[in-house]
Amino acid sequence: MKKTKIISLLLAAVMLVTMLSGCSLFGGKTVVKVGGESISEELFSAALVYSDTMFQQNYGISLKDYLDQEMADGMTGADMLKENALGFFREFESLAKVARENGIELTKEEKKTVEETKKAQFEAAGGKKAFLDKLAESGMNEAYFDYILDRQQIGAKLYNELFKGEGEFAPKEEDVVAKLSNGYARVKHVLIQATEGDADYEEKKAAAQKIADRAKAGEDFDALIKEVADGGDGDPGMQSSPNGYVIDAQGYTIDGTMMITEFTEASHALAVNAVSGVVPSTYGFHIIKRYPFDEAYITANYAEYEDVSAMENFAQKITECMQNIEIEYTKAYDKIDVHAIFGVEKPLGGAASGEHSEDDGHDHSTDAEDDAEAGDTADGGIEVGEAVPQQ
User: What is the pLDDT of residue 349?
Assistant: First the structure.
C-alpha cells in the first residue's frame, strides 16, 4: 500500500559489535582518515564488498561487473563503490564524533552485556564458524560488521540520552504538536486487493462498493477492517498502525514512508469523520475514513509521535556533522586494487579503476604517519549491542 522513502541513517539489526582501541581500526595500512579516525585497508575493502551487496539489493545490479565502465557523472563502477564505501565511514564517524563531543561512551556494564550477547549469538547460530558463514552470505566480514555495530551501539546511547525525554536535543512537545496539527490527515482504510486484468476484478470492485455502502451507513469501520482482514484480504499495515496513517499532502507519513498518489489525494479530499467511495489503485480498491488529528488528539497521543520527531532531530544532527567532517586521503587510498578485491581481471593496457597517480588532487600529508601505523591492531574485546536507537 505504500512505497518506502529510504532515509535510514543506521542499519537495523542486533548483532556483533567491537569496542575499539588503537589508532588504525582493525589494523593494516591506513587508507583514509575520517574525522581523525584512521580507517584501515582491511576495513575499507570489506566496506567495498558490502557496498556492492547493497547495490544489488537496492538496484538489482552488481557494480563489480562494471568496474571499468563509466556509470554516472564520469565515475566508473569502481569509483562508485569507493565513494559509497567512504560514505559509510562518513556516516558512522560523524555519529561517533557527535557522541564524543557530548561525552557519550559505553560503561563497563554495557560492554559486559554486549560480550554476553555475542556469545549467545554464536550459540544460536551453531557456533562461531556458522555465524561468520551466515555473515558472509550478506556480503560482510567480521571486521566490517563489528565496526558498524560498534558505531550503532554508541548511536543508540547517544539517541536515548540526548534526543529523547529531557535530552539536550529532544523535541519540545509544543513544537511537535504545532507542526503535526497543520497539513496532516489521519486515515484508516479497508483494502480489497485486486489487479486490473484479473478474472475476478469486477467482482472485487462490487465487493468493495458493498463495504463502502456499509461504512457510509454507519457500521463500525474498525470492524469492517477486521472482517476483510480475517477473510485473507486487507492492508497488513492497519494491524501495525491501529490508529491509522498520518500523511501530509504530498503523501509522506511522519515516519518517512510515502503513500501512493490515489490514496493520498482521496484521504485529503475527505472531511473529518467522512468515508470515501471506492478508490481504485494498483493495489486494488480502497475505502478510506478520515479521523480527527487536531492539537487535542496529538497531545493526548504524544508518545506515539515523540520518537518520530526525536529521530528527525537525530538524523539532522548527524547529517550536519557529515557535511563538515574532515576527510584525509592517503596514497594507499588511490592504490586500493578494487579488481583484486572482487577477483575481477584488470583490463589490458593502462591502470585499472581505483589505481591512480600520486598527483590525484588528494591530500597525502598523513602518508608517513600511516606507514608507521601499518602494523597497528585493535585489542578491544568483541561485543554485541543494539544496532539502532532503542525506542
Answer: 60
